[in-house]
Amino acid sequence: MCGIVGYIGTKPVKEILIDGLRELEYRGYDSAGIAVLQNHQFSLFKAVGKLINLEEKAQKFESTGFSVGIGHTRWATHGKPTELNAHPHVGSSSYVVHNGIIENYQELKSKLTAQGSHFISQTDTEVIVHLFEFHLKTASSPFEAFTKTLEELEGAYAILLVTASVNDTIFFAKQGSPMIVGRNQENETLFGSSDAALIGKCHEVIYLEDGHYGIATADKISLYDKNNNQVDLHFTPLSENKLSAQKDGHRFFMEKEIYEQGTVLADTLMGRLRDETVYFEELPPELFDGIHSIKLCACGTSYHAALVATYLLERHAKIQTSVEIASEFRYREPLLSPDTLFVVISQSGETADTLESLKMAKKAGLKTLVICNVDNSSMVRLADASILTRAGIEKGVASTKAFATQVSVLWMLSLHLASERKTLQENEIARQIKLLRTLPSVVVVDNSIHEQLRRLSKRYLHGHGFFFIGRDVFFPLALEGALKLKEISYLHAEGYPSGEMKHGPIALADPELFTIALLPQHKLYDKTKSNVEELSARDSTICSISPLDFDKADDHIRTHFHEDYMLEFFEMMVVLQLLSMEIAVRLGNDVDMPRNLAKSVTVE
Known about the structure:
Layout: E1 3-9, H1 13-23, E2 31-38, E3 41-48, H2 51-57, E4 67-74, E5 89-90, E6 94-102, H3 105-114, H4 126-136, H5 142-152, E7 155-163, E8 170-175, E9 180-183, E10 189-192, E11 204-207, E12 213-216, E13 221-224, E14 230-231, E15 236-237, H6 242-246, H7 253-259, H8 261-269, E16 293-298, H9 300-317, E17 320-325, H10 326-329, E18 340-346, H11 352-363, E19 367-372, H12 378-382, E20 385-388, H13 401-421, H14 426-442, H15 447-456, E21 465-470, H16 474-489, E22 493-497, E23 513-518, H17 525-537, E24 541-546, E25 555-558, H18 565-586
Parallel strand pairs: 16-17, 16-18, 18-19, 19-20, 21-22, 21-23, 23-24, 24-25
Antiparallel strand pairs: 1-4, 1-10, 2-3, 2-4, 5-6, 6-7, 7-8, 8-12, 9-10, 9-11, 11-15, 12-13, 13-14
Helix pairs in contact: 3-4, 4-5, 8-13, 8-14, 9-13, 9-16, 13-14, 14-18, 15-18, 16-18
């Protein structure tokens, strides 16, 4: 999501920082800023919107000689996209930029406020600089103050911090969010949250590991690990291909976005999981007062996420839940009652049909909630409340990580409501919160499975169509798998509930009909298996996806054993995304920009 750059050297620092931020624009942002330290004096520039606004703010600023600078592009998580909330954040004589989320920021903020710190933003990031300056009062050096600061932070972060008392220094740290340090033959040091920001500016880099922190000056870089042991500097050559850097070495943005789902889901979950409860700071407590039913409304992939939510909300929160396709809902004169919470789901927050449906609900007097990836979008501004998915920008037209983050938010929402309504035992909520904490590791791509899918894809390039089938939440996942294949391979595919095969669709079964069967161990396995056997008996070609062996399968993709069906859901989601992509690659299609499609559908 957010982007970070840093520089120590003698070149015009403003140009280097803004150029580095420009290379990170593909990640998505809603505000930007830079801070320059020269001769123990700071110059700060921040702006909402695109980088051109920041350039205009800093137009008259020029640096000469040696300087230190940090810069940031922000995608809002805590607090609206405003100049006050934009990075860098300031203390009395220090500035910080930060990617990630500080989970215990409220606790730290309360402590620091009581000690006299004055906060001016709504962000979690600002606690870092005030905490640093609090420790600076008693520490033997600024570096000791920085290490004491890191010891108190909980969550994920990539941090660059500069302070006026040391004119040539950047303090840095990485935990759960990317950070790279580079150097060049002119003895300059640069930082970036992606190597795209560093290409052309340095020739070798260090990709920091979790727990790494250190101090960089004009003469030296000192690096330490999580055990406070000094680490030898091992630089690696930096690629010269900017587009490849944006793709992190992957062939397509879609592939990159599939692979980064673990990192993205960590962002989505961050700060929202307590030991025994789900906490949404952004939801007003009165939102659910008087609510007896929920109506979800969305289009495309977001509609499939909404379908998953109907199972989870009714199962966990015991609240009547229905789902609407927005393009149909807005024209069918629906009956709306004020005891219904109207929830819209959209990656962009601008989807035309969904936005108009939201307006209808508002006009009818319903309470409204939007689940969205873009703060300050039309839906976020219009709805009574919003939950941001924190997926970052998604460049591949076929949605992957946006779907993953939407489903994870809806799962959390079902548990939040279950806690409010006391419809699940506390130990069951705690169990599911533990499951949620494992999601980032569950969606990490298994290289052996990806290689199997790459080889398998050559068998699925012909025929007269695909059936994707599953039961319960795996039915909407089957719909999503079929949609992914249609979008990028241009092959005909349909998603069906497994039990519906015998009510007509099985008439299509023959060897040229490919059935992709979702067979989770922990949800209606025997029922689904029986339905797949019916298709196999009619000579349909079967590709089963399951942790359990299935002797009727022509091809079998073995997933890992998990303790719950929702973890199986997320791993099978990744398998379906990769399968569709590899088939499209075999067919020679443009995976990132399929024909006839747009990323954000702002027309009917």
